[in-house]
Amino acid sequence: MSSFFESDSPSNLAEYSVSELSGSIKRTVEQAFDQVRVRGEISGYRGPHSSGHAYFSLKDDKARIDAVIWKGTMGRLKFRPEEGMEVIATGKVTTFPGSSKYQIVIETLEPAGAGALMALIEERKRKLAAEGLFDQARKRPLPYMPRVIGVITSPTGAVIRDILHRISDRFPVHVIVWPVRVQGEGSGNEVAAAIEGFNAFAAGGPIARPDLLIVARGGGSLEDLWSFNDEAVVRAAANSQIPLISAVGHETDWTLIDHASDQRAPTPTGAAEMAVPVKADLEASVAALSARLKSAVGRQMDNRRQSVRALTRALPSLDQLLALPRRRFDEAAGGLGRGLQMNTANKRRLFERAAAHLRPDVLSNRINERRQNVSERMTRAERIVERLIQRSASRVSSADAALRTLPARLLSQIHRSGDRLTGLMGRADSALIADVRRRRSTVAAQDRILQSLSYRNVLKRGYALVRDDAGLPVKSAAALSLNQAISLEFADGSINAVTTEGGASPPPQPAKKRPEKPAQVAPSKQGSLF
After folding, report:
1. Burial 113-150 (b: 16+ CB within 10 A, else e)
2. Burial of 380 (0-12, 13-18, 19+ CB in 10 A)
3. Spatial distance between the Cα atoms of 529 and 464, rounded to a whole number of angstroms
4. How are beta strands 54-59 and 36-43 bridged, if at all?
5. Strand pairing partners for 487?
């Protein structure tokens, strides 16, 4: 009895598991904040994860909230997030039960407070994109080992020295510099002319035709980089027959030439790294094969994800269903190497333990045991087959005896069924006769009631039924008028008549003294009606 009260709950509160409570909180948060817009500053952005997803935070002067952009959404963003950028994010708030945290899953991202220059850039970008200048199909692959590289930049800045120094460190090749102004009035026309000039070089001419072009400039404000948003520069880069790398500004700076070029470098130094390979990379072929395998697996996962999304359009979005597995996968991927090492060590210990027991005498004993088991099983199998044969023979004998007695049983069953059918037919006839009698008596009783209530029986007692010219019964004398045609229905027939006076009956007169000898009155042709 004491154990019962000890195990009983001290309150009426429902008991939840940790998973149930976390799932309920997750559903409540997602339903309450399924579509929100948040303005804040990007913090902790380190670029996309190896899985393609991006994890960072949005903050203001008082609070911060974790944010995530899935791989599919990253590809649809109009611009790339950057550290310290103030943005307006649209998405839904959800929780991650694995660590009791909440976060916003961003679906769209836009810069906060874009100015007139940004609006002009966006308008020009839409115009040029509609013409197809930014299509991926127009972009050409960069040569793996260019022999001549053409650089379009200012000859006096630090950019050209960084490019030349980086190329000489990685893989020295011949570099041709076309000096231009990279800022100020007319600089855009000079850059466009330089791109067209390099493309005009003839193969085998006095000046070697470049295999790759680099358009480079250092960082600066939006106004400083405005020359590379010029429409002439963008068209020249898009129409260039020589593959072109744009390296304008720092990593966070984006211009329209970046969209029209075949490859965009985050910095001028990065452009030099893209232009030529490193000898160490050529020696690390195993790492390259591993990267190709990882890329192939990623593409295969993307194809499968698209197929599942096409088949499950009626279900919630794939990002919602795979949010938690993706997060767990990313966390598990970090410990995959350590897990492989531990698994290899465990397998090695098991192998060494098993190898210690592999001796010739142990193997011979196991072989003898297996032989003995096989012989015993064969003996048991023979006994089982003999018993099955005996059981089958007895079943065949029983079936033969049952078949011999089958005709007699069928005849007796037929006779019994005939007798039963005859009895059922007699009972049916009796029931039908009784039902007919009962219905006849019911009809006779109802006929007697009808006759007793009929008005014709009243007419037989000396009464008459008065009808007007429409054949309707007359219920009062006031309903008749003078000289109105009526009919009188008696028990033995009907006669027609005409009223001589109408209206209500006259008031009664005082009684007169009866004469001693009444006068003789001639009989009237019309009798009294009442």
Report:
1. eeeeeeeebeeebeebeeeebbeeeebeeeeeebebbb
2. exposed
3. 10
4. antiparallel
5. 467, 496
Contact 65, 103 (CB under 8 A): yes
Nearest to 133 by CA among 49, 29, 237: 237
Q: Are strands 244-248 and 263-264 parallel, antiparallel or unpaired?
A: parallel
Q: Which residues pair with 303 in a beta bridge?
A: none
Residue 78 has a pLDDT of: 66
Distance CA 158, CA 149 (A): 18
Which tokens hold the place of 527? 């009798």
Please list, in sequence order, all residues whose beta carbon lies within 8 angstroms of the beta carbon of residue 37, skipping any fewer than 6 positions away. Answer: 88, 89, 90
Which residues share a beta bridge with 36? 91
Determine which helix (DSSP H) or strand (DSSP E) holds 43, and give its type and residue range: strand 36-43
Secondary element (H or E) of residue 335:
none
Q: Please answer whether residues 254 and 219 qualify as being in contact, where contact means their C-beta atoms are separated by less than 8 angstroms.
A: no
Taking a C-beta distance cutoff of 8 angstroms, is the pair 248, 187 a contact?
Answer: no
Each residue's pLDDT tens digit, 181-217: 988 767 888 999 999 999 999 888 888 999 999 999 9
How many whole angstroms separate alpha carbon 477 and alpha carbon 188? 121
End-to-end CA gap in the chain: 103
Candidates 27, 67, 10; CA nearest to 44 is: 67
Rounded distance between C-alpha atoms, residue 59 and residue 104, angstroms: 12
Residues of the chain with pLDDT under 50: 1-7, 114, 116, 503-504, 507, 511-513, 515-530
